[in-house]
Write a structure and sequence with these properties.
67% helix; mainly alpha
Length: 135
């Protein structure tokens, strides 16, 4: 069993059917986690949110071991966090600066039609994390 599946099974046994079948890719899991992150924010399910963001961070940190996993979490998860307002407002609290720095171009691209929303996100992120990211 692949490492990403073993890690996911530890954290997300309840949704194992989305990623354990033979044809499933990491994207199968990531798409489900995107849906779950929105619902968990709405439900204020901190425990599940912790698991989701922990897994996303773990995947992000696999860049040297597996570019496939790293790329999947960047384009399949992080870049989509700006699509839902409740999730977008959580980014400064949930995404570490070293990750935010690298996914910032993806977030900006996703919000290209609403540059003001991106600027607001950036200002909020900088304020909360004592960072100085620029557009």
């Amino acid at each position: 069993m692949s490492t990403w599946r073993r890690k996911a099974l530890e954290l997300f046994y309840n949704i194992r059917f989305t990623f354990l079948h033979r044809d499933a890719s990491i994207y199968s899991l990531i798409f489900e986690l995107r849906r779950k992150v929105v619902q968990s924010h709405k439900d204020n399910d901190i425990e599940y949110l912790d698991k989701i963001y922990y897994y996303a961070e773990w995947c992000f940190n696999q860049e040297k071991r597996s570019y496939y996993i790293w790329n999947a979490i960047c384009v399949g998860f992080y870049e989509h966090l700006v699509e839902d307002e409740i999730v977008r407002h959580a980014i400064p609290y949930r995404i570490r600066p070293y990750i935010f720095e690298q996914v910032q171009p993806l977030l900006k691209w996703r919000l290209e039609k609403n540059e003001e929303v991106f600027k607001e996100l950036l200002q909020q992120y900088n304020k909360i994390n004592n960072t100085n990211f620029e557009c």
